[in-house]
Specification:
Blueprint (H helix, E strand, L loop, with lengths): L2 H14 L3 E8 L3 E8 L6 H16 L1 H9 L9 H18 L4 H4 L9 H9 L12 H20 L5 H7 L10 E7 L8 E11 L5 E5 L1 H7 L4 H6 L1 H9 L1 H9 L6 E3 L1 H9 L1 H6 L3 E3 L2 H4 L5 E7 L15 E7 L2 E3 L1 H8 L4 E5 L2 E5 L1 H20 L4 H14 L8 E6 L1 H11 L20 H16 L3 E3 L7 H15 L4 E5 L4 H11 L5 E4 L13 H4 L2 E5 L13 E7 L11 H8 L1 E8 L8 H11 L7 H11 L5 H9 L3 E2 L15 E8 L3 H20 L4 H19 L1 H5 L10 H15 L4 E5 L5 H12 L4 E3 L5 H12 L6 E5 H4 L10 E4 L6 H8 L11 E8 L3 H15 L17 H8 L4
Parallel strand pairs: 3-7, 8-13, 14-19, 14-20, 15-17, 15-18, 16-17, 18-19, 21-26, 22-24, 22-25, 23-24, 25-26
Antiparallel strand pairs: 1-2, 3-4, 4-5, 4-6, 8-9, 9-10, 11-12
Length: about 900
């Protein structure tokens, strides 16, 4: 291939990905997937090219990819999730090159990661898709994979390890075989420290280096040998940067143990980074390694319970100075400032006397004392302190460590919020509630009530299928039996039917009123509904029309599908945030871990000020890459306000079935209503004049099919090809469910009995998933079917497959999917179950969620109710002759079945 052709291909790839970011999605057992995601960030060509190269390496060389990733130079401009993988792989490589015997050991080199390092990787992980799988086991498995990737690469490489790194253009420096040691002398006197140089001699039979004093090298190699010069190359490199080391080399003291004065030891410790850069391994006292702990300002907030508990309650706090792990008074610190800089032996420990750090600590302490005298903190202020303490106290955390902790009372409150499993069961479901909550749902109810009691906004983010709706209905029903409160529920228009159905099923005494023209035509502020109902349901779109909803203060405000407010700049989000409420709940099945901007917008609604202003939060997130604990602090702040349980967590949900079936209700659009009613009238005329027998059966079954088509989409019934999303309630529901599936990078199979709609569904779903999907129907060649199944089951992310139920309902193994959607109903449980079993079968490792679409108020809803009634009366299943049993009804029964009831 000519160079010009190659450049053209590279340029086209860059153009294809210019608005996309490569992200990492975490899966169990140390596995991950790389995926392209649209981004608003402006990426430079260098970052785009690096992303493309990373993706190619992953595709082409997966068994070595982890090690290759460890050689990537920096992660500037890359997604946080991909940067995390690079940091993990890079940690392995850095440890690898710290082994002075790497050239001798090659693939036999062992690189270990300890428990403390694993904990840090988990604690400081960024928000990313699948982070629920990120635990000790995941890190250990990933580390094992990096080890294997390194071995695979070295076994097939004939050159030296150093050459391999040079080829990769990695900026990693290999260590030499010389070590510098600095230790404390127990004897007091002029030389309280000792210095010693050692070197790694030949390997023992066990494959380990023997460390010998450097003077032994003179005997082993001779003073003028080439081997000695090679050994000392790192020492000479360090001496070029350090007068202290140069003097030791010139005097020959570098070969012998010597005592160091306090001043000399201080010089050595300050220059350690230079020595390590030259390739010398340094062994120094722990108190210097952890010198950030040697000077610290600690602030403890909320030791005592305030007189009343809500978000306006004022909390006190205490500030204290610590040096070398011991408390130090302001007077003692001022006394230290009068001493010379260097090392000081205080209270039996060596500490650094650094005037700049001491002055900053003193200034921050005085600021904290002044602040405490003049003001107190609310609960939100207290939580926010973990993110913004350095700004409030006007101190740089690079100079002085700040330790912000909850006092005894506040920590007890936060512990209850973070651990709902340990909450006392103080709340019931209320009177006339027609369901038994699962244990985790009861805990969710108690957690929501506790948040309401305190007045903190709550994010109910349980996994899809775990029953967020029933938990909120249970809370509303409990409140109904205790207080005369008013709650406003804001939902997407497509979910109105779902909520009405669930309330009717579980809490029929909960009086609700729908502020939407689909349910009530004449709506006004003074129509009396506010006095006679407890719950008011409206949509995001109606808030602009019913602006009086924004003027009153609601006792509870609930957002369903709260990802609708993830973009803070939209008119819809701004309207929602104008609504006044004493208590706020956000419900979302979409992982909120994916985009930090979404997280800020959500919390700006739930608990305004917790994450600061948008500008402050943006600055904080920019600094997080440089801060070792930035993500850990952010998680500490937001985790008490988020309740997220997962279907995969058997410790929380041990009795959850492996297959969760749920009815998903959709509303008809205006166009669907018009077509449906017209078809009802036409059927009534024809059926009354039709002869009994085949003609009448044909009329009924033909009308039934056309009703299904209208419920799917008007264009399917009309034979048109536009399929506009806004003209079908089912398409709107399909979007909401599939957006959640895509956010988690899971897979779904969609069944329909109509071949003619499969291509429309494919086109619609490809917009949502931003990936190509597959279609299989009766006209798909038998030879092609195996290829489609293999592609869907393969490593590459193929998010969906649309199947006609006749062609795909049997014989296929599609266990990569853990969601099944019956877009239109076969009305034969046996046939539907057989289709569902394409995913729910041996080889499926996840819980399968089955969504059965039902259009509210139509023949679909009535037939579903009839089937459910049959199941309750006996074990009898609707006959296998499809819908023919419907034709046995008389004319009046058939028209009652078909007639629209909205």
């Amino acid at each position: 291939m000519m160079a010009s052709e190659m450049t053209e291909i590279e340029n086209s790839e860059k153009h294809e990905h210019k608005d996309k970011q490569l992200i990492a999605v975490i899966y169990p057992d140390g596995l991950f997937m790389l995926d392209w995601q649209a981004t608003n960030q402006k990426l430079d060509t260098g970052v785009i090219a690096l992303q493309i190269e990373i993706d190619k390496q992953n595709q082409q060389n997966s068994e070595r990819f982890w090690f290759w990733l460890g050689l990537v130079r920096g992660s500037e401009g890359l997604s946080e999730s991909l940067g995390y993988l690079i940091r993990l792989a890079g940690a392995f490589v850095r440890k690898l090159v710290q082994n002075p015997d790497i050239e001798l050991l090659r693939e036999q080199a062992i690189v270990e990661i300890d428990d403390e390092e694993i904990a840090e990787f988990i604690q400081n992980a960024p928000y990313m898709i699948g982070m629920q799988y990120l635990d000790i086991h995941w890190i250990e498995k990933a580390w094992e994979s990096i080890h294997d990737a390194y071995k695979n690469r070295i076994q097939s490489y004939s050159g030296s390890i150093a050459q391999l790194f040079m080829e990769s253009e990695s900026p990693i420096h290999f260590v030499g075989r010389v070590y510098f040691h600095l230790v404390e002398n127990k004897k007091e006197g002029e030389y309280p420290f000792s210095f010693l140089s050692t070197y790694a001699a030949e390997l023992s039979p066990e494959g380990k280096s023997r460390h010998l004093p450097l003077k032994n090298a003179l005997l082993e190699y001779g003073e003028n040998s080439r081997k000695l010069l090679e050994l000392l190359s790192t020492v000479h490199k360090a001496s070029e940067q350090s007068d202290f080391i140069a003097e030791l080399v010139e005097s020959g003291d570098i070969f012998y143990p010597i005592g160091l004065t306090v001043e000399e030891a201080y010089t050595f410790l300050k220059e350690v980074a230079q020595y390590e850069e030259a390739g010398i391994l340094c062994r120094i006292p722990k108190w210097w390694k952890n010198k950030s702990d040697s000077l610290k300002l600690s602030v403890s907030i909320g030791d005592k319970q305030p007189s009343y508990v809500n978000t306006e309650a004022l909390l006190g706090f205490d500030a204290a100075l610590w040096l070398g792990g011991d408390a130090i008074s302001k007077a003692e610190l001022q006394q230290l400032l009068a001493e010379e800089e260097g090392l000081a032996f205080i209270k039996g420990k060596w500490v650094e006397v650094n005037h700049k750090r001491l002055q900053e600590a003193l200034k921050a302490y005085e600021q904290a004392q002044q602040w405490n005298d003049n003001s107190s903190l609310t609960l939100i202020d207290a939580m926010r302190m973990k993110l913004s303490a350095s700004k409030l106290l006007k101190v740089s955390e690079e100079v002085v460590e700040l330790d912000i902790s909850n006092g005894e009372w506040l920590e007890s409150v936060m512990n209850r919020l973070r651990h709902p499993n340990e909450l006392e069961s103080l709340v019931s479901v209320g009177a006339d509630f027609h369901a038994d909550l699962r244990v985790y749902q009861e805990r969710g109810l108690n957690w929501l009530h506790l948040m309401k009691t305190i007045g903190l906004g709550a994010c109910l983010a349980d996994d899809m299928g775990l029953g967020k709706t029933i938990q909120v209905i249970a809370l509303l029903n409990y409140v109904r039996t205790r207080n005369q409160e008013k709650a406003l529920l804001v939902v997407p228009a497509s979910l109105i039917g779902n909520w009405m159905s669930e309330i009717g099923k579980f809490a029929p005494s909960l009086r609700y009123y729908v502020y939407h023209p689909s349910e009530n035509k004449e709506i006004a502020e003074d129509d009396g509904s506010l006095e006679t109902h407890e719950l008011f349901i409206t949509t995001y779109g109606m808030l602009a029309k019913y602006d009086w909803l924004l003027n009153r203060t609601w006792d509870t405000l609930i957002l369903d599908e709260a990802q609708a407010i993830k973009n803070p700049g939209t008119k819809q989000t701004k309207l929602v945030k104008q609504i006044k409420a004493s208590y706020r709940i956000a419900m979302t099945g979409t992982p909120i871990e994916n985009r930090l901007a979404d997280l800020w917008s959500l919390f700006d609604f739930l608990n305004k000020g917790l994450l600061g202003t948008a500008k402050e939060f943006t600055q904080f997130t920019k600094n997080m890459r440089e801060s070792q604990d930035g993500y850990a602090r952010l998680k500490q702040v937001v985790s008490p306000f988020i309740l997220r349980r997962l279907k995969t967590d058997k410790t929380i949900i041990s009795d959850l079935p492996d297959k969760i079936e749920m009815k998903t209700y959709a509303s008809l659009t205006k166009k669907q209503v018009l077509l449906y009613n017209k078809l009802v009238k036409d059927l009534q005329k024809k059926i009354e004049s039709a002869d009994e027998g085949i003609e009448r059966k044909g009329l009924v079954l033909g009308a039934l099919m056309r009703f299904k088509q209208i419920c799917n989409h008007p264009d399917q019934y009309l034979g048109q090809q536009m399929y506009a999303e806004e003209e079908s309630g089912k398409y709107a529901r399909l979007r909401e469910i599939c957006e959640t599936i895509y956010e988690k990078r899971e897979r779904v199979i969609i069944f329909t009995q109509f071949k003619e709609i499969t291509e429309s569904l494919r086109s619609f779903l490809e917009q949502i998933f931003e990936h190509k999907g597959l279609v299989l129907h009766g006209e798909t060649a038998v030879s092609k079917r195996k290829e489609l199944v293999a592609e869907f089951q393969g490593k590459d992310y193929v998010p969906f497959m649309v199947l006609s139920i006749k062609a795909g309902g049997v014989g296929l193994n599609l266990t990569s999917a853990n969601h099944v959607i019956h877009f239109d109903r076969w009305w034969n449980p046996a046939v539907e179950n057989q289709a569902t079993d394409r995913a729910f079968r041996i080889g499926q490792l996840k819980n399968v969620i089955v969504h059965k679409f039902i259009t509210q108020g139509t023949v679909e809803e009535r037939i579903d109710l009839m089937i459910e009634a049959k199941k309750k009366l006996s074990d009898e299943i609707v006959p296998d002759i499809q819908e023919s049993w419907i034709t046995e009804m008389d004319n009046e029964q058939i028209m009652d079945l078909m007639r629209l009831s909205i």
